[in-house]
Amino acid sequence: MKKLLVVDDEQSYRQLLSLVFESEGHQVYTASSGEEALKILRKENVQVLISDVRLPDMDGIQVLRLSRQISPDIGVVMITAFATVETAREAFKLGADDFVQKPFDIEELKVIVRKVIEKQALIDENRAFKRAQRERGRITNIIGNSPKMQAVFQMIETVAEVQSTVLITGESGTGKELVARAIHELSSRAEKPFISVNCGAFTETLLESELFGYVKGAFTGATTNRKGLFEAANKGTIFLDEIGEMSPAMQVKLLRVLQEKRVRPVGAHEEIPIDTRVIAATNRDLRSLVEEGSFREDLYYRISVIPINLPPLRERKEDIPLLVEHFIKKYCEITGKSLSISKKAMEILENYSWHGNVRELEHTIERAVALERSDSIQPESLPEHIINYNPERIRAEFTLPDEGINLFAHLENLERTYVVEALRKTGGNQTKAAQLLQMSVRSLRHLLDKHNIRSLSAKMRNLE
């Protein structure tokens, strides 16, 4: 049984079509005007609309256009006694399934409606199949049987059904973008765009034009209008990675977009309405940034309606064998090899701390698959620092002295030491140094200013 809506200002036609399609087993609603029809469409999940072209308050083409906005998948059959080529062309352009002229043959109309219903059934079947494919594929791209990862999987499936903003937190390399994509793929927005943007990779000006777009003449080089990523992701999802790197001015603008559901391109006077779900991510402690005053508290609460925290790999070591087997299979397919992994090599991998998390493990396996000459990955194919890793020795090096230490001063000094060492290793190249420290260039520059060593980059380059 399907729900049908018959729209005609002539009562005799409404009664006739109601009797015909109720006898076919369908539930039939009737309306004598366009406004009445739209009220029914907003309230009921109607599958097929049968509408006259001429109505007292609006024409059927307008009803067709508005009905598509309310229910994009609705089947539409237009009926008229005054058919014109222009009207028919406009109806088909707006997605009408068929166009019938009065007086019509009842049996012919019944066949047309059956075809529309069959077409919708195929669309529903195809959508269900694609959804099942996504559910099997996307979630399994995030590997893990540990209790912590099972909790993450459950959260993904739960939040996919709602439209609230999500904040994904976790260390670098834990798979925050994979989680964001899984949420999108399991949601009703799955067939619309998923657009990812790294907020730490752009200057404030560039980020604004990337997110909101710009109009011709807004600035030097703006020779045409350009759609922003928020508008490009309309009806879909935008993933704002490294949101903690966003400047205070951009935070204000983003907050307004989230509140108003509208964007204003750079240089434009008019705002554009959007329906874009926002998923944000950060490897920084936003609560601490709020306390420091570098991140807006109101924006923090706006983006963290639903928080998801990803555990570091060292807290779910039982997942390491699964991940190892997954990556071996992945890179064997690429290289055309067939490899397993030795027991000793697996023990070494399980013993390591993995501060780079899943990303570091993947790169390690990619390297091992490329280097291994036997049919099984051996310890010798693993990086030296992983083979020689000894947690007991590391703990001994960090023994707390009896007199205690000034922890904050010690950590500040350690932070400065690593920054200087990264710049030394990269010859003052800030981009490469930031990569070594697994942070954005903006974060590195913040540390250079914090420790008053911004000029160190130039000095290192001059030594080369």
Question: Could you outline the blueprint of secondary structure elements for this entry?
Answer:
Layout: E1 3-7, H1 11-23, E2 27-31, H2 34-43, E3 48-52, H3 60-70, E4 75-80, H4 85-93, E5 98-101, H5 106-140, H6 147-159, E6 166-169, H7 176-185, E7 194-198, H8 204-212, E8 213-214, E9 226-227, H9 229-232, E10 237-241, H10 248-260, E11 262-263, E12 272-273, E13 277-282, H11 286-292, H12 297-303, E14 306-309, H13 320-335, E15 340-341, H14 343-351, H15 357-371, E16 376-377, H16 384-387, H17 391-397, H18 407-425, H19 430-436, H20 441-450, H21 456-463
Helix pairs in contact: 2-3, 5-7, 13-15, 18-19, 19-20
Protein described:
It is a single chain. The protein is of the alpha/beta class and 464 residues long. The chain folds into four domains: 121 residues, 3-Layer(aba) Sandwich (Rossmann fold); 171 residues, 3-Layer(aba) Sandwich (Rossmann fold), CATH 3.40.50.300; 81 residues, Helicase, Ruva Protein, domain 3, CATH 1.10.8.60; 60 residues, Arc Repressor Mutant, subunit A (Orthogonal Bundle), CATH 1.10.10. The chain is built from 21 helices and 16 strands. The strands form five sheets. It has a five-stranded parallel β-sheet, sandwiched between helices. Strands 7-10-13-6-14 form a five-stranded parallel β-sheet. Helix 5 runs antiparallel to helix 7, helix 18 packs across helix 19 and helix 19 crosses helix 20.
